[in-house]
Specification:
Rossmann fold, 3-stranded antiparallel sheet, 11 helices, 7-stranded mixed sheet, 45% helix, 10 strands, alpha/beta
Length: 280
Amino acid sequence: MAGTGTATASVRADWNHVAPAWGELHEHTEASVAPVTERLLTLLEPAPGETILELGCGMGTLGMGVAQLVGSQGTVIVSDIAEGMVAAAGRRAEGVAGANVQVRVLDGQAIDLPDKSVDAVVCRMGYMLMPDPQVAFAEARRVLRGDGRLVFSVWSGPEHNAWALVLGSAVMQAGLVGPDPFGAGGLFSLSDKATLGAALSGAGFPHVRIDQVDSPHGFEDVDSYWQITSRLAGPLAAILSELPGEKLEEIKRHVVAMASQYERPKGVLLPGQALVVSAS
């Protein structure tokens, strides 16, 4: 646990760095995870009057959708560890009528809320980025009421997610050392179903359902894939932003070569797959 504070600060810095790009490109990111969002909402079943906490909100689009479903008597707490993301979500929340929407900076590993204070916790693609998801799952259990539910998504393994594998492989081929995608806080750190189920059981969730949801990522062309993904990719985006031009061009050549195999008559379509989890 000694390094968790430093790791958490690094996560905050990485996602603050890319927050402006996420704001600019949020329509693209929403389209890429639309099937995941649909399944999350189906499993979450937000009911009028409920209090629901969203962790790792990014631009806050999911939370705003939930807010419409809990209505004026409900409350949605939209939160993220990165202040830049929270600021963007706050601007989007200003246009949401109806539910009581609160926008807050919160760490999923140490949630600043009372015990048994929410009916549900939802998190789209956030838990695998937390340095200690076991602690985060226990925190979700703590803030949930007795019959509350936790609904979240993480990415399946790299073999199902070419949209991420192409850029990550290109960085490695260029001789750069990026974050371990299977290590703590890595993109695929929660991609094993058995490990994920055991972690949830250990955190006090005896009933766990894990679904696989295909969520391919579409782009106009290979260059669009490079331009968008290299700006949104959290810690990799931070690494790329500091490279000299010739090194960046080298990586781009690798990306173009690998992504070309996914070209279609009307653009580029790279496979993607998520695990969508419901626990109680």
